[in-house]
Amino acid sequence: MKPAPTLSTAFLYPAGQSLPKPLLALRKQRGTALVDMPLPTRKTENWKYSSKYLKLTDDMAISLPAEGKTGSSLAVPGYKVAFLNGVMMPEACEYPDLDGISIQSFSDLSDEEASDLADRLDSTLDNKAVQMARLNSARFEDGLLIRLKPEAVLDQPLFIVHEVTAEASGSAFPRIFVDAGRHSQITLVEEYISSGSAQVMVNTVTEFNVTEGANITSIRLNMEGENVQHIGSTGVVQQRSSRFESHTVGFGGPLRRHDLQVRLEGEGAECKLNGVVVTQGKQHYDNHTTIEHVAAHCNSEETYRNIAADQSHAVFNGRIHIHQDAQKSNADMNNKNLLLSNGAEIDTKPELEIYADDVKCAHGATIGQLNEISLFYLVSRGIGRREANVLLTMAFINELVEQIPVEAVRETVQGRLNHFFEQTFQEA
């Protein structure tokens, strides 16, 4: 029997040493625990459809240098933090000057602050289920700590631009931790972009600690190039009467993977998860979500839509777990999928696991193609077949795109979708 592949030891040696001692110690501890870590295979349930796309060669283990200038496809109308190859670039940042809001790089933390952070990193994620997040914990070179004091409100969105410069093979490990105090409020936009053509890997982790009454909106826009493998993890823990809203927009690549885990620990907590994915060529995109209803009287709403063209592959796996004490839970999950060619593939697996008896839960999934009758109707009214295809496809996802609460992101997504349509549909 062929032995299971394990993580190469080349990935266990981070380069940067500018972090405070408590974070260096944490990183070393996490690295030691990764020795002989099995890599996911087709037999790994939550990597069943994606393991064959994961290519971790030794030359990718090298940390990409944090040198050069950063860019963004967004016309940033708010505050900005720039990461280059996983390291913050202070000269490209525009911080808010508001009471009650602190934004610091990990490398600027005092030993006391770093020690407190080290105790909290990874606390929002089930690392057994999100095993590649453990690699980030062993390799992050820098990170961003956002702290909001009680009642603090960020008046404009905070844009975090993550850029990788792929002039040579390597990897980057961006890290973010958001600690939102009671009744605080923030909108966070993460944009992932790239330049260069070498084969690289980006492994990201973002964590949210959402305390009582806090309101967080998270927008995640993945627009990296065809040479970038992207593996991302987002962990959320919510307390009483808090609200977390997520909008994820992803464009495919050789491997795109995002794990989103939300844990509703306080009564009255609410979360809303929206996701849009488009793939073409031989691209692959995999979204895995988990919502844990731990406390009673919590609400969750989840809507993901995938579009796959050519020979591409999209995956959605959504799991809702209603714990025994989570009475009066209200949970709804919906996944709709659109195949634009006979060679495309979409796999969907909605899951409900319920241990409470007084709940209201629903889930559903559909996979289909463009309706030929609708196409015929539009063409018979003088609309070209290409334009008819675009109209119907855009209508399929526009409901979710329009819900993105930041205009600059909506405009960027629309522009990228137009490019997708130009490549996918030809005038008939």
From TrEMBL:
GO terms for biological process: iron-sulfur cluster assembly. Pfam families: SUFBD_core. It comes from the Bacteria. InterPro entries: Fe-S_cluster_assembly_SufBD, SUF_FeS_clus_asmbl_SufBD_core, SUF_FeS_clus_asmbl_SufBD_sf, SUF_FeS_clus_asmbl_SufD. Residues 168-396 form the SUF system FeS cluster assembly SufBD core domain. This is Fe-S cluster assembly protein SufD. The gene is sufD.
